[in-house]
Specification:
Layout (H helix, E strand, L loop, with lengths): L5 H21 L8 H13 L7 H16 L1 E6 L10 E5 L2 H6 L19 H11 L4 H14 L4 H20 L7 H13 L5 H18 L24 H10 L2 H13 L3 H5 L6 E2 L4 E4 L8 E4 L5 H20 L11 H4 L14 E7 L6 E5 L2 H15 L7 H14 L4 H8 L4 H4 L21
Amino acid sequence: MAPESAASEARLGWWGWEMRKFLNFCQGLPAGTALMEALAGYGRFLNANDPPPEEWRKEQAREALRCFKKGIENWAILPPDESGKVEVRFRARTIQEAADGAEIPDSARMAGTTDGAGSPDDAARRGAQEGGEGAEALLRRAEGAMRVRRMARRTVETYLGWMRRYLAWARAREKPEAAGETVQAFLTWLALERKVSAATQNQALSALIWLTGQVMGAEVEGLDAARAKPGRHLPVVLSRDEARRLLAAAEGTTGLMLALMYGTGLRLMECVRLRVKDVDFDRNVVLVRDGKGGKDRQVMLPQSLKARLAEHRERLEVLWEADRAADLPGVWLPEALAVKHPNAGRELAWQWFFPSKQIGTDPETGVRRRHHLHENALSQAVRVACARAGIAKKAGCHTLRHSFATHLLETGTDIRTVQDLLGHKSVETTQIYTHVMEGGGTGTRSPLDGL
C-alpha cells in the first residue's frame, strides 16, 4: 500500500492520486475479482468512511476513475505470490483506443483502475492526460488570476468552491465545461434540484463566468442573461429598546465589540480586523481599512464607549508586552508590508485591537502567531444576548449595522451621510432603510387608529 503524502499527491495530480488509491484498495481483494465488482466495492468502501467523504470528493473520484476505465483493458487481479504481494494487472490503451472505447455504465460509477503496461504511476499520469487538464490545475490557475486582481480572500474561496462543484458536476455527466449550455444546465440543476436562492444562483454564475472567461479563455455568450432576478427583502432591525436590552445582556470583550458595531455601523469582519492604530481617541474616529470592495472610510467613535475602549487598550498593551517577552512572531501584515517593514508586526500600532486569547496557525504562512478574535465568537455572543434579552427576532451581527443606519435616519440624519458612514457605493443601497423606519418611513397614520 502506498503511503498517502502531500508529495505523492502533488507528483501525480488529483487524477492520478485517485487512481492510485483505487489500486491500493484492489490489492486487498480476492484474486479474479472483476473490474466492475472492484469498482462497486471501492464505492462502498468510500461511503463507509467515518466521516464519509464530501460529495465533491466523491465526484472527483468518479471522474478520475471513469477516465481511467476508458484507458485500460485486460483487467486481472492475480493471486498473491510467495511474499504475499498481490499484482493488479491490465494494459494501458492508446489515446485513440480510449477515444473509441465504450462509456462506463451507471452501475459502475464510483470506480476505475490504473496499471497495465507500465507502473501504476505511469498509468495514472496517462489517464490524467487523456482526460484533459485536471480540475485542480484549472483551480490553481483560477486562484492565481483572482489573487492578481486583488480579490478578497473569502471571495476567492467562495468562487473556487463553486468552480470545483461545477467541474465535478460537468465531468460526471461528460459535458463540455466551457460551453454555455453546460453552465445553463448547471444553473438549472441548482435552481430546480438544489432549490438554491436567487442570490446563491447568481453567486455561482459569477464564479463560472470567471472560470470560463478568464481561465479557460472561452467567452461564453449570453451567460449574464441567466442571472436570477432577486427579490427585495427588508432587513431585520431592532428597536432602540431592543438594542439597549441586547447590549446590556452582552458581556466582556464580545459585548464591547457588539456595542462598537451598533455605535459605528461596522461590519463583522471590519470590527474583528481593527488594529490599535485604527482607533483614534484624540480625533474621536475609527478608521476602517480595506473594507468591503477594498475601500477605506472613517466613522465616529461613540463617546459612551471611549472609556471602555481605553481600558481595553490598556489590557491589550499588557498582552502585547507578554508576547514580545515570549518572542512570538508579529501579527499578520497586509500585502508586502512584512517585506518592506519586517518588524512592523511586532509594533503596538499594528496589533489587533481585539486579539484572540489563543495562539493560532496562520492559514497562509503556517506561522504560529496571535490572530484576531474569531468572528464566530461574535455571532455566538449575539445569539446568547438575544436569548437573555428575550428578543424574538432573527438577529445577527449584521442586524446591529441595519439598526445603526435605521436609527440614524429616524433621528433626521441625511441619507448621504449615512451612505458614507456605511461605505455604500450607491445611495440606492442605503435607501432600503427608509422602508424599515418607524411607520414605514412615511409618517402616515393608519385609518384603524382613527376609529
